[in-house]
Amino acid sequence: MSHYKSWSGLNKQLNNFLCDALKNRISYFLTRYHEVHNSYGRATIRLDGQELVNFSWEEMYKQDNDANNLYLKTGNFDYNAPELKEKWDKEATFSDYDFLEAATQFIELPINEALNSENYLIKIFAIMDRRVGKRTLERLRKSEEYKCYPVWVQQFYELRLES
Fold first, then answer.
1. Three-state DSSP class for residue 11
2. Residue 145 and residue 138 in contact, taking contact as beta carbons nearer than 8 Å
3. Model pLDDT, residue 36
4. Residue 1 confidence (pLDDT)
């Protein structure tokens, strides 16, 4: 994971990238439970105060369980296995660490690379970005390529295309 100095600084950067229509509507939240072993945490993306999607330490345990089950089936212990990525992408099985990694990567990417990323979290940050112009939005609306993404990702595209 890329290093970041503080959540407040990273949050400010993410909010500065939001398009005008979503500036006061979308918010990012991250907390760490320091009293708990390993300082587990939770991250969310919210619209008007309502959670659209969350990423927590519980999801990390689901990832571990899926990887262990794959190992028992195949003898291959690989967190990057295509079948695991497909399952986790579909079900939004991402931890707060996955959220942070995507956020720090997104900040360093050109907007076109972010929009075309394999990482759905980076795509979400990108579609809400102020650097995405009207022509790009119109192209996305016409192609409807985002409709093949999982429902939890589609909601961000539809939100941006409506705004």
1. helix
2. no
3. 60
4. 52
